[in-house]
Design goal:
Elements: H1 6-10, H2 21-33, E1 39-43, H3 51-66, E2 70-74, H4 78-83, E3 87-92, E4 95-101, H5 102-107, H6 109-116
Parallel strand pairs: 1-2
Antiparallel strand pairs: 3-4
Length: 118
């Protein structure tokens, strides 16, 4: 995990309460990966984090996907989600309102704009 998150290598001797929110998120993702999952569910994994940490998290999400681990990503940044997924689903009040290939939605952002108020 320290190869995936080099920032944590620098903080190895720090306690959990001395880690930033982004570093704590990295630890959470790393711990989940150490269980050799078939599916990773990432719910707002980048919420409230510094831009550099957000970029690092998305880099790791791409690496996770490249290993064949399925990912379910819930995030407000629909552009990033579409860039890191094959399929996209939009739910409204627990109801499916759109399901599509992510590439199609990237090419037709107006379909999402109607639903998300973008």
């Amino acid at each position: 995990m320290l190869d995936i998150f080099p920032r944590l290598k620098e903080r190895w001797n720090n306690g959990g309460n001395q880690l930033s929110g982004g570093e704590q998120q990295m630890v959470s993702i790393g711990r989940a990966l150490m269980t050799n999952p078939r599916l990773m569910i990432l719910d707002e994994a980048t919420e409230g984090l510094a831009p550099l940490v957000v970029a690092d998290i998305w880099r790791v999400i791409a690496e996770i996907r490249s290993t064949g681990i399925s990912t379910l990503i819930v995030d407000r940044d629909y552009r990033k989600v579409l860039a890191h997924t094959d399929r996209a689903v939009v739910m409204e009040k627990g109801r499916l309102v759109l399901t599509s290939d992510s590439a199609e939605l990237r090419a037709q952002p107006e379909r999402l704009a109607q639903l998300l108020g973008v």
